């Protein structure tokens, strides 16, 4: 008998968080399409990710708040006969030993990994585990064993990008998205753009070429146009102001702090809901 398939969407900065939310929103509908989403909430999959990556302290969680999160998801995934789908963008940066911890708890399932990726921005440093596509592919390749089970969905620029990514994720996994709307989902805050001089702009395009090469040479399943990985050349800043760069970096870190608070807020609300106490919703958001 053929093995059941499990699809793990790990995203990259861009539309990853939106797809995490979309998968969770349509959990019941997907079950009717023979796709099992074993996460009870998006917050649960995030706790599983930081448990596997041993980053709970960085995000303000206690160990006991994340312990066993992935094991619980894996147990649900192993039940039934449906195709399994888990979406959590925070897993993209997992190290090889952390990936091994994840995969060993999915025995008997044929794992596929889906990476959604847009053109790199100025903060994507070579070798960065969370944002460098070449690095992500290198670490996750071993988990799927066969290169065509690592699927790369290229997100085109513009407002239609997330709709395209959602549709292509559905095609990879095997479900249609026409009736599974993204309407009302917050697109997420655009990252603070890193100001670039002429040399920085050239380095960005070279990084995109490195990404394209990694995808092609890896023999992975590609959805979309690899040409969209090449960023439109921004207008170079001839005399880059150090104060501007420091301010932009500080803004990016402030957004990250707000995201940490938002995650903690999700955890607290989930616990109150489970206890039968429904608070007035007060969510943190990034303007």
Question: Nutshell version of this structure?
Answer:
Keywords: Coiled coil. The chain has 287 residues and is α/β, with parallel strands linked by helices.
User: Helix proportion of residues, in percent?
Assistant: 40-55%
The dominant shape is globular
Average pLDDT value?
A: 84
CATH-level-2 architecture: 3-Layer(aba) Sandwich
Number of domains: 1
CATH topology term: Rossmann fold
CATH class: Alpha Beta
SSE sequence, one letter per element: EHHEHHHEHEHEHHEH
How far is it from the N-terminal to the C-terminal residue, by CA? 51 Å
**Poorly predicted runs of 5 or more residues:** 278-287
Q: Strand fraction band?
A: 5-15%
Discrete helix count: 10
Secondary structure tally: strands: 6
The main sheet comes to: 6 strands, parallel
The neighbouring-strand order within the major sheet is 2-3-1-4-5-6
Radius of gyration (CA) equals 19 Å
* Structural class by secondary-structure content: alpha/beta
Coiled coil: 244-278
Keywords: Coiled coil
């Amino acid at each position: 008998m053929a093995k059941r398939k499990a699809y793990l969407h790990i995203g990259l900065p861009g539309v990853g968080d939106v797809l995490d939310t979309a998968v969770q929103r349509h959990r019941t509908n997907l079950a009717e399409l023979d796709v099992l989403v074993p996460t009870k909430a998006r917050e649960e999959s995030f706790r599983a990710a930081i448990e596997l990556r041993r980053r709970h302290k960085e995000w303000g969680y206690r160990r006991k708040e994340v312990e066993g999160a992935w094991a619980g998801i894996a147990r649900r995934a192993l039940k039934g006969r449906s195709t399994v789908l888990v979406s959590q963008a925070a897993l993209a940066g997992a190290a090889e030993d952390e990936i091994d911890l994840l995969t060993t708890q999915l025995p008997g399932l044929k794992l596929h990994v889906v990476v959604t990726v847009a053109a790199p921005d100025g903060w994507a440093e070579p070798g960065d585990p969370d944002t460098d596509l070449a690095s992500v592919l290198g670490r996750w390749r071993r988990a799927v064993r066969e290169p065509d089970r690592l699927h790369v969905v290229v997100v085109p620029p513009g407002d239609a990008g997330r709709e395209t990514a959602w549709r292509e994720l559905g095609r990879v996994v095997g479900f249609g998205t026409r009736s599974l709307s993204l309407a009302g989902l917050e697109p997420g805050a655009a990252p603070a753009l890193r100001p670039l001089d002429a040399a920085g702009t050239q380095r960005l395009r070279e990084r995109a070429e490195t990404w394209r090469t990694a995808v092609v040479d890896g023999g992975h399943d590609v959805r979309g146009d690899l040409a969209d990985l090449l960023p439109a050349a921004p207008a170079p800043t001839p005399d880059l102001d150090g104060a501007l760069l420091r301010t932009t970096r500080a803004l990016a870190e402030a957004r990250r702090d707000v995201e940490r608070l938002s995650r903690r807020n999700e955890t607290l609300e989930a616990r109150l809901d489970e206890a039968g106490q429904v608070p007035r919703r007060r969510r943190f958001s990034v303007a």
